[in-house]
Write a structure and sequence with these properties.
five-stranded mixed sheet; 44% helix; 5 strands; 120 residues; alpha/beta
């Protein structure tokens, strides 16, 4: 069984990617990379990564988040994080990535944040 399972769903022009498992070195980080790359290549650049079922993330997982950020931004998009677990939030804080990524605890607020940034 894969250590990371991804499931994409759409809310208008926004894609929410529900992640379940661990984001770590190996197949899991490749799974995340492929999921983001496929979205960007298909023009889906408003992305929310739902992390509520991610039980752990190592430095490779952090690297994948950072690596996913630039291609999305370079296409004029945004990559936001939703409901990180305590372990994942701790990793984001240690690496200071919570300053790079917008992090939300409520899905509807995360979705609405895209329309607010368009007008800002």
């Amino acid at each position: 069984m894969a250590s990371l399972i991804t499931n994409g769903r759409e809310a208008g022009s926004i894609t929410i990617v529900d992640l379940r498992g661990s984001i770590d070195l190996g197949e899991a980080s490749l799974t995340l990379r492929r999921a983001i790359r496929n979205l960007v290549e298909s023009g889906r650049t408003k992305i929310i990564l739902n992390l509520c079922e991610v039980n752990s993330m190592d430095s490779a997982g952090v690297g994948e988040l950072v690596g996913a950020y630039m291609p999305v931004k370079s296409r004029g998009g945004e990559l936001k994080l939703l409901k990180p677990t305590k372990k994942v939030l701790g990793m984001l804080q240690i690496t200071q990535l919570e300053r790079v990524f917008e992090v939300y605890t409520d899905e509807q607020i995360a979705i609405r944040s895209f329309s607010e940034t368009v007008h800002a």
